[in-house]
Amino acid sequence: MLAAIPLAMIFGLGGCSEPAPAPEVEEAPILMQAGEWVLTRKTTGYNTPTVTPAQYRAALEQVSEDKVCLSVDGEGMPDAAALAGKDGTACTYKDKMARKGRLIATLACTAGKGTSEIAVEGNYTADTLTLGETMTQSEGGGAVLRATYDLSGKRMGDCPKG
After folding, report:
1. Does 113 map to a domain?
2. pTM, rounded to two decimals
3. How far is residue 2 from each of residues 7, 8, 9, 95, 97, measured CA to CA in Å?
4. Does 54 fall in a domain?
């Protein structure tokens, strides 16, 4: 009977061990969806070497709304030119990071006789985005315009067949 006690204790303790942890479930990535988007851009700051108070106030009243057929690359990055709006053409990403609904990037664009660099940071889902943008336009190596914007967007559906 004494020999049975240690066995009972061993088997009893065996039932007290903690269960194995559940395997971690990998989150599905959040990918922005291509399609027809409405992008709303509100000017929040505007500065040139010669800006007057009246020009500054007028700039802060600017809100534009554009329908764009937004393409998204294999990494989930939206078309750089669509994010730049009227502040640049032939835009490319200098750096970019899109992860877990957060987008941080710098765009390099052609702008008139010079270039513009646009820093973008904000959040997105598959069919919405809310970004802050800071654009610096340069000509001949010197800054000629700096502007900041709030950019929001909503996917409306597939792009119209054209």
Report:
1. yes
2. 0.79
3. 9, 10, 11, 73, 67
4. yes
